[in-house]
Amino acid sequence: MTTLHPISAPVGTDDALAWLNDEAVALRELGLHRDPVVRRPEATTVNLASNDYLGLSTHSAVMTGAQAAVEAWGTGSTGSRLVTGTTVAHIDLEDDLADFLGFPAALAFSSGYLANVGAITALAGRGDLIVSDTGTHASLIDGCRLSRARVVVVERGDHAAVRNALRERTEERALVVTDSVYSIDGEPAPIAELYAAARDHRAALLVDEAHALGVRGPGGRGLVAELGLSGAPDLVVTTVLSKSLGAQGGVVLGPPVLRSHLIDRARTFIFDTGLNPAAVGAAHAALGLLRADPSLPQRLRDNAHRLAAAVGAPAPAAAVISKIVGEPQPAVAAAADCREHGVFVGCFRPPSVPAGTSRLRLTVRADLDIATVDHVADIINASLRRVGVR
Ligand code: PMP
């Protein structure tokens, strides 16, 4: 793992972009600058930073699904979904996902990000209220901002505050948005309480199941299914094809009238090139594997519990393990040390997480055997000791 551009060359001080130099220096001084990690084919690293929770992105059946779709439809979807970018493979995938997750209809977008932005902006606009919380993913936040609705943000988990905001509103229409499993630390949101608050106050609830699909619920059907809410009225679920299903893309699930509304109104659906055929083929093959083997999510959860216990992190509610380090510098140093010793871990620090809670963020996979889980735990513990954390 190396970086392509370790130090960026400053631009001329007379240039209009000169302020970027100051920003770059300030971020570096704080140890907060970011460089994408470049994965290389020859690397023999164990990847504990990916969202490939079930290990399906390299499963032979999933790769064959992608290849078959490329053979049938080519490498690009060739246009927007409304013009040439919808194939029968797209419709088959949408139908199968809707059936698996217990909703009448589904619509696929080319990313989870675009699915969230598209769904929120199509469901709320000027003169409406959105109630969100402090733990939501950036794609939900951006959807709220772009909607032009009035947005009330409550503390994560505070469903009573959501209820109050809905009760006290002057707007007729309201939408509550939340992650089902928070992306930062894998903790679940109070979905049952949020749904009850929404129903009591004639609001819709949009739940992002990105980190719950393939992880929680019966056969990996997610937290909404675990709570018996699949297909419930006024419930909109979004999820991604880019995590447990090992592909790429996003999906919105709900009643058929929601699907047709999004086709008419969601700008990220209308003006974006349709989901790539390779992603459609891969996601559909992965969905087949998940259907055929309901023990996959359990294997993932077992591995997550084993690794969390071994590194002294709290028992995880999903696939995400947070090993809190505290200050950003030792967290960054520990992550780099892990990488040097063949384990690729995530590192979250401000502004992604509150000050003082910089952490190693670990995600295990269902396809790791117990010996590998124990081995990577030893490496992580040794790295933490070397940087003086434990
Ligand atoms: N929602 C959540 C909760 C996420 O964590 C992510 C991505 N990490 C997304 C949406 C965006 O999905 P995608 O990467 O498919 O655009």
TrEMBL record:
Q: What sections of the protein cross the membrane?
A: none
Q: Which domain of life is it from?
A: Bacteria
Which reaction is catalysed here?
6-carboxyhexanoyl-[ACP] + L-alanine + H(+) = (8S)-8-amino-7-oxononanoate + holo-[ACP] + CO2
Q: Name one GO biological process term.
A: biotin biosynthetic process
Q: What is its EC number?
A: 2.3.1.47
Could you confirm whether the keyword Transferase appears in this record?
Answer: yes
Cofactor(s) recorded for this entry are:
pyridoxal 5'-phosphate
Record-given protein name: 8-amino-7-oxononanoate synthase
